[in-house]
Design a protein that fits this description.
This protein is mainly beta. The protein is built from 10 helices and 52 strands. The protein is about 10% helix and about 40% strand. A hairpin with a 6-residue loop joins strand 41 and strand 42. The protein is flat, with a radius of gyration of 38 Å.
């Protein structure tokens, strides 16, 4: 307690009562369903207060001291978690990263990635049939795409990594390309079998059907055993013992963990998890010298064709359900074996949903990944398009004492930034107007000049342009010439390569509405044209729309119902950063500089008496902290639904009152959160005790609400009973 008081200063009591500066933390308020677990919200929000502390005019000084304790705690709250002030940096070693335009329909810019881009990918020679043959691994991302609301309106303003209409061109290949290689000669013999490392797994190829583009794999370990000899294998985390009991001329008796079967030469038996195949038998008259070659594994052989599910890499059995399927393309001296993506991932309701920022698509066996790492910028400057009906006065720009038009209807476009956001007539301004002339047959252009004057930009009957500017020239805004009905306001992107992007807004200044219907959005009142495509009508979209430049048109339907348009534009073209990793890639992220959010002092009066003038209206507009019981605080009595004053001896003797004021008796108090206390959606926090000392004890409990995870009481409900003894335990 001494530490906090010394921080705030000896003059704090006066500050509470007069509204002097009080430090408050940043928090997030939700006044619709608050419990004590949300405290200090909703009383502290966004670095400022949204509260009024009310003390009974007839209360004891102990109530005032209790209120001071609560206010001291709020003032002593930490400023908030540090927030980054500089961008995090990502270093990619042994991988490839690019910034991709939101307009790109595929990631073809990456080209074909090989070992020189992806660490762990191979470009080397392997030995087959006594020859050194060339192999390499490649990855193509042609089948992947950056997705925005232009692809699926349900994604809103988010950006995703998904597929194009040809997902199978997202493909990994293991390529054998060597004149010394003969695919048709590959067989299950010691010299001609082909051992490859595919997607990080060692696999044995025992046959390549060039004509049919089929590959036969052997998934087993070979072992040679004599009669009575054993070997062990581990499958599904269980150890199995394989024992050869006897060897006959054409069959072998084999036991696996005590289960015995006779297996004929060149046949196999499935023991459940483990399959055993008899590959060959060395039969002699001397039983001790007899031997058999066994192949032991979970699957002995499998033949695959292009388009088959990659079951061996844990894909579903049916190819139609598999995310990855086999790729096989075989010629005599050139063979491609690999994995290609199979499912559409273009819309949020697809079986495989697109990946959001920070999410990844993995190759089979985790052999690599493609991550949508981040967006390169944010759309942070808000532009609001709204109508002003009959209250715009326009003056001459060169002689601002001369009024040209008064009480005009206008479309006001504001940036929300002081004196900036637009360029017009070689000047910067934060607000632009399209206004109607006297006879409602023309539309003029005006802007605020920095001295709170709305001045004419161009003479009536002349179309003029202005620029939406967020450090860079982003959109050029033009409108069609004089029109007695609707005006087409066109925003054309000025960014290099994106100047085909256009946002068209159907504005009727005279009727003060967007589109055809006032107060009711229609599809055609906002149209977006991207990269030479036909216009998309988005006026009735219920989610925000992200343009290819990265600008956001916020919830068109909701705003359109109010005849408004809200846009957010970036300082520069927003791109999606994509990182491609191989099995040996390292990605490290270094956080930027951070700063603890500034704590703003309170400028309003946060403490009132329950008899102060205006308290009846204040209780409707503010979240309240009510200190004192219904015996001394009129608002406490009102919010609990009891008469004022109601003393402790009265509520404990009356069951109805006891239900409303759940205090058991002397030495107890309550902390109660009441949602929608006086209407209007605000909350009231009641801190009240049987006596003034009990009220002060409850205030101390609230002051120490974080101590030892709520101390000995559960401050996570809507109502908590606190005893003076409890408070002493956490002093």
């Amino acid at each position: 307690m001494k530490k906090i008081l010394s921080k705030i200063g000896a003059g704090f009591l006066g500050a509470v009562m007069t509204g002097a500066s009080l430090l408050v933390p940043v928090a997030i308020a939700d006044s619709t369903a608050n419990t004590l677990a949300d405290y200090p919200a909703p009383f502290i929000t966004d670095g400022g207060t949204d509260m009024l502390m009310v003390i009974g005019a007839d209360a004891s000084p102990a109530d005032v001291l209790g209120a001071v304790n609560i206010a001291v705690e709020l003032g002593g709250e930490p400023e908030g978690e540090p927030v980054p002030t500089g961008a995090a940096t990502t270093a990619v070693t042994g991988g490839e990263d690019k910034e991709i335009s939101l307009a790109d329909s595929d990631l073809g810019d990456f080209g074909t990635l090989k070992d020189n881009y992806l660490a762990g990918f191979k470009d080397k020679k392997i030995t087959w049939n006594g020859e050194d043959i060339d192999i390499e691994e490649t990855l193509s991302l042609d089948g992947l795409s950056i997705l925005t609301s232009a692809d699926d309106k349900n994604v809103g303003s988010d950006v995703y990594l998904g597929t194009t209409t040809n997902p199978e061109t997202f493909i990994y290949k293991y390529i054998i390309d060597d004149n010394d290689f003969n695919a048709s000669a590959v067989a299950d013999s010691s010299s001609e079998k082909l051992t490859i490392e595919l997607l990080g797994e060692t696999m044995i190829v025992t046959d390549i059907d060039v004509a049919a583009d089929k590959i036969k794999f052997k998934f087993a370990d070979d072992v040679v055993l004599g009669m009575g000899e054993s070997t062990t294998v581990t499958a599904d985390s269980t150890e199995y013992t394989i024992t050869v009991n006897s060897i006959g001329l054409g069959s072998v008796s084999v036991s696996v963990n005590g289960d015995t079967q006779i297996i004929e030469d060149d046949h196999n038996y499935d023991f459940g998890v483990v399959t055993v195949e008899v590959g060959s038998i060395l039969y002699t008259d001397d039983t001790e010298s007899r031997q058999t070659k066994l192949s032991v594994g979970s699957d002995i052989t499998k033949t695959v064709s292009s388009g088959d599910s990659m079951e061996v890499f844990d894909e579903p059995k049916e190819a139609k359900d598999a995310e990855w399927v086999w790729h096989v393309d075989a010629e005599a001296d050139n063979v491609e074996i690999g994995a290609k993506y199979s499912l559409d991932s273009r819309k949020l309701d697809d079986d495989i949903a697109p990946k959001a920022v920070g999410e990844k698509i993995e190759l089979p066996n985790g052999y690599g990944e493609i991550e949508l790492s981040e967006l390169t910028a944010v759309a942070d400057l808000k532009y609001t398009f709204e109508f002003k009906e009959g209250n715009i006065d326009v003056y001459n720009a060169s002689a601002t004492s001369t009024k040209l038009y008064d009480n005009r209807n206008a479309l006001m476009i504001s940036s929300g930034e002081a004196d900036t956001g637009f360029k017009i007539d070689s000047k910067e301004t934060d607000t632009v107007y399209l206004f109607e002339g006297n006879d409602t047959t023309f539309i003029g252009l005006a802007y605020e000049d920095g001295d709170n004057n709305i001045v004419m930009s161009a003479a009536p009957n002349t179309s003029e342009s202005f620029i939406l500017d967020n450090d860079e020239n982003i959109y050029n805004a033009t409108y069609n010439e004089t029109n007695s009905t609707n005006v087409d306001l066109n925003l054309t992107n000025l960014l290099s390569g994106l100047n085909e992007e256009e946002v068209g807004i159907d504005v009727n200044v005279h009727s003060v509405k967007l589109g055809s219907n006032e107060g009711d959005a229609d599809a055609n009142e906002i149209k977006v044209t991207e990269q030479g495509a036909s216009a998309t009508s988005i006026g009735t979209y219920d989610k925000s729309y992200r343009t290819y430049s990265g600008a956001i048109i916020e919830t068109p339907e909701d705003n359109g119902d109010n005849d408004e348009v809200v846009m957010y534009i970036p300082e520069e073209q927003i791109k999606a950063k994509v990182i491609v990793s191989g099995p040996g890639t390292e990605v490290t992220t270094t956080e930027g500089d951070t700063v603890t959010p500034k704590v703003e002092p309170v400028r309003d009066n946060i403490a009132r008496m329950d008899t102060d003038e205006g308290i009846e209206s204040d209780k409707l507009d503010k979240n309240l902290i009510l200190v004192g019981s219904p015996a001394v605080n009129r608002l406490t009595a009102a919010v609990l639904g009891v008469d004022y004053p109601t003393w402790g001896s009265e509520w404990t003797a009356d069951e109805n009152l006891s239900a409303k004021v759940p205090i058991s008796g002397e030495g107890s108090a309550m902390i109660k959160m009441v949602n929608n206390a006086f209407g209007g959606g605000n909350v009231a926090l009641v801190v009240a005790g049987w006596s003034a000392d009990d009220t002060q004890a409850a205030c101390t409990a609230l002051q120490q609400f974080k101590k030892e995870e709520y101390g000995t009481y559960d401050l996570t409900k809507e109502n908590v009973t606190v005893s003076e003894t409890t408070v002493k335990l956490i002093d």
